[in-house]
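For homework, think about our next protein:
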Amino acid sequence: MKNKNLKSKILNHNGGFIISMATLFILATMISIAIVMSALTFYRQQMLTNEKKSVESYYAAEAGIEDALLRVRNNIQMSPLNYSLTVGTTSVAITIPAMSGGVRTIDSQGNNSGIIRSLRTVYGFTDTFGTSFYYGAQVGAGGLQMNIGSEVVGNVFASGNITG
């Protein structure tokens, strides 16, 4: 009888230990899952912040290109120029080099908290021949044949004859 009581006491004691270990294992698993989810959320938020800054840098660099094109268009013979401007929270560095072969290669670099986007455009002077096409038509070697009463409002450039 004493053996039976001793055996039941040992079993009861082991049952509490197993429940405690299972509880600790489940708690550790839940804490691990919470830490992993927090880290994933933090990294995803960091990625979205960097993506937003990248887009802002790109559009600021594009604004720098537009500003430089306006300056060059208003003063075709301007000297080389390096300047900067601020668009929102982004700083933009613009380089307008000297004219080379009738073109300028304009560089613009947007920097938003270390996220840098660069753009380059080539500005060519097309009106060096004195032609301007406000409303124009270009036809090939076949030329242009016009009927009575027809007219072209604007300019026509043709490799062939224009009759009419």
In short: The CA atoms of residues 102 and 129 lie 12 Å apart. The mean pLDDT is 83. The radius of gyration is 37 Å.
